[in-house]
């Protein structure tokens, strides 16, 4: 590894920096001539993505600290990430030709004697989940192995088992964070508790998490029941009504329910699907799946189930991503929109988004990996915590989240991107209408967000909450180094600006 390192003068990368500042060659920066460059700069989404002028790949905490201090001192913008980073909020794309702080050497995952787990800042779900499983422990985890744990956790962290254990960030016990100038601090309830609060929901804005430690729960044994079902198009009213009944009765904390559309390549149209995952109890899971069984044709809202596949999986398979093959592929183009609803699904709105989804893919066949899904899980564990437990602002608001994801490959003239955004935004706006969503305004999960939502829709409408977040930003990121991910405003007035005029990379000129 060391033999292919390029000990470079940063002057070749960022013209305004002088050569002698390269910390005596102790820090290594790779340029695009590095043979592993392409795989390290690959992104899950190549659309509105960050680009890099160099890669800084520290091997130790000390190196990480020194490197950040160096970059900050020379006003060189940077972004902490790892190969195949899944972050796709379009504000990441305002970070062009920045230095990548590559956290791939920080992927450790260790279960401690007190059963907590400590993971490195670059860990992915594939590092976390098997380690937990081997120790007979579990916690809320994401559904796909390739996703970074910290990118997920810092926005809140939804996933499998959240009905039981709450958000991933709800289980955070402590973190070690490198600040914008390389200083490393601890954050927990006892030390730097303001940073600890902010990390859990608005954490992309405040520093680089070197490592973090979480509470875990015993794996009570037994497999997790999984059912994948496909329905006829005209089952939409019956399926939606069934899902609504399940949700309105109070979602079972052991259930994770997904309902929506994936594009059927053979059928050449979106297919109405339901996926049920029920924790640790095959019998209860099967009962839940049974509620979506085909009904008599003369029922008021009939259901015709075209296919039904049951599997049982252990905890390590919950995050294996097998349900959607290819979901971890990198360098495709994606644009996401999202909206939350309390309990409602609206069948007419579902039909309308089905139609618009179908037209979008018919006109742009290269976008046939697009999806439109509603994820629903009990808020019981999340809501057992006080509203101001962490910076995550939507406790009790996100029982059901729509994920509207347009995915495409080639786009020579930008027309697919335009159509993708028109479809995604149109579907989001329809689903967020008060009469459809059941909310008087938009509530959106920052990790599924685009760039046009008001900041308050992502981080909270409460003015005191906004003031607290802005004060944190002023204290911990006064020069706006961490502005890639739907940045918090440094001034309270920034909360009322239209989304497009938010501060970004350019704020660092004030350093
Ligand atoms: C296929 C797929 C599956 C997903 N599944 C889920 C899911 O189950 N639950 C869920 O809640 N969300 C999920 N998401 C959304 C996900 O939370 C965001 O896309 C998230 O930004 C991905 O983080 P990452 O670390 O992979 O990406 P990156 O691009 O590496 O990072 C995203 C942002 O986080 C910052 N960041 C990353 N690591 C650190 C660190 N150690 N310290 C400080 N900042 C850091 C980066 O600087 C960047 O601003 C999914 C997304 C995709 C594409």
UniProtKB/TrEMBL annotation:
Keyword hit for rRNA-binding: no
Domain of life: Eukaryota
Molecular functions (GO terms): FAD binding; oxidoreductase activity
Leader sequence segment: 1-19
UniProtKB keywords: FAD, Flavoprotein, Oxidoreductase, Signal
Gene3D superfamilies xrefs: 3.30.465.10, 3.40.462.20
Domain FAD-binding PCMH-type: 47-219
Obligatory cofactor(s): FAD
Matching InterPro entries: BBE (IPR012951), FAD-bd_PCMH (IPR016166), FAD-bd_PCMH-like_sf (IPR036318), FAD-bd_PCMH_sub2 (IPR016169), FAD-linked_Oxidoreductase (IPR050416), Oxid_FAD_bind_N (IPR006094)
Pfam families associated with the record: BBE, FAD_binding_4
Family designation: Belongs to the oxygen-dependent FAD-linked oxidoreductase family.
PANTHER family: BINDING OXIDOREDUCTASE, PUTATIVE (AFU_ORTHOLOGUE AFUA_1G17690)-RELATED, FAD-BINDING PCMH-TYPE DOMAIN-CONTAINING PROTEIN
Protein name: FAD-binding PCMH-type domain-containing protein
């Amino acid at each position: 590894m060391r033999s292919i390192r390029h000990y470079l003068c940063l002057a070749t990368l960022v013209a305004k920096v002088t050569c002698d500042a390269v910390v005596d060659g102790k820090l290594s920066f790779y340029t695009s001539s590095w043979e592993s460059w392409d795989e390290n700069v690959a992104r899950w989404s190549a659309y509105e993505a960050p680009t890099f002028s160099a890669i800084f790949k520290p091997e130790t905490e000390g190196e990480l600290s020194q490197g950040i201090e160096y970059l900050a001192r020379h006003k060189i913008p940077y972004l902490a990430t790892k190969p195949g980073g899944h972050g796709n909020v379009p504000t990441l794309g305002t970070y062009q030709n920045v230095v990548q702080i590559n956290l791939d050497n920080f992927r450790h995952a260790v279960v401690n004697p007190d059963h907590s787990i400590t993971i490195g800042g670059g860990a992915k779900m594939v590092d976390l989940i098997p380690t937990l499983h081997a120790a007979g422990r579990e916690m809320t985890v994401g559904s796909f192995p390739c996703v970074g744990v910290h990118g997920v956790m810092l926005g809140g962290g939804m996933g499998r088992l959240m009905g039981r254990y709450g958000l991933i960030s709800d289980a955070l016990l402590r973190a070690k964070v490198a600040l914008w100038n390389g200083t490393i601090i601890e954050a927990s309830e006892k030390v730097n508790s303001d940073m600890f609060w902010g990390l859990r929901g608005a954490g992309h804005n405040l520093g680089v998490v070197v490592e973090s430690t979480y509470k875990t729960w015993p794996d009570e044994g037994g497999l997790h029941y999984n059912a994948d079902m496909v329905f006829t198009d005209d089952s939409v009213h019956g399926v939606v009504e069934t899902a609504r009944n399940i949700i309105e009765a109070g979602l079972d904390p052991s259930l994770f329910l997904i309902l929506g559309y994936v594009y059927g390549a053979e059928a050449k149209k979106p297919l109405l699907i339901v996926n049920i995952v029920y924790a640790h109890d095959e019998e209860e899971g099967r009962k839940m799946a049974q509620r979506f069984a085909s009904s008599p044709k003369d029922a008021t809202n009939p259901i015709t189930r075209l296919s039904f596949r049951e599997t049982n999986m252990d905890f390590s398979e919950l995050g294996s991503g097998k349900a959607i093959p290819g979901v971890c592929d990198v360098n495709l183009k994606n644009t996401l929109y999202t909206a939350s609803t309390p309990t409602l699904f609206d069948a007419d709105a579902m039909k309308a988004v089905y139609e618009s989804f179908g037209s979008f893919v018919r006109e742009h066949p290269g976008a046939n990996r697009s999806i439109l899904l509603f994820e629903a899980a009990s808020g019981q564990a999340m809501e057992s915590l006080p509203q101001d437990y962490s910076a995550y602002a939507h406790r009790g608001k996100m029982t059901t989240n729509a994920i509207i994801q347009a995915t495409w490959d080639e786009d020579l003239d930008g027309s697919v991107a335009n159509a993708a955004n028109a479809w995604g935004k149109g579907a989001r706006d329809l689903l967020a209408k008060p009469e459809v969503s059941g909310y008087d305004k938009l509530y959106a999960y920052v990790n599924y967000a685009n760039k046009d939502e008001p900041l308050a829709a992502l981080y909270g409408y409460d003015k005191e909450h906004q003031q607290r977040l802005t004060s944190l930003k002023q204290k911990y990121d006064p020069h706006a180094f961490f502005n890639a991910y739907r940045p918090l405003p440094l001034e309270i007035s920034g909360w009322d600006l239209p989304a497009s005029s938010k501060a970004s990379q350019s704020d660092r000129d004030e350093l």
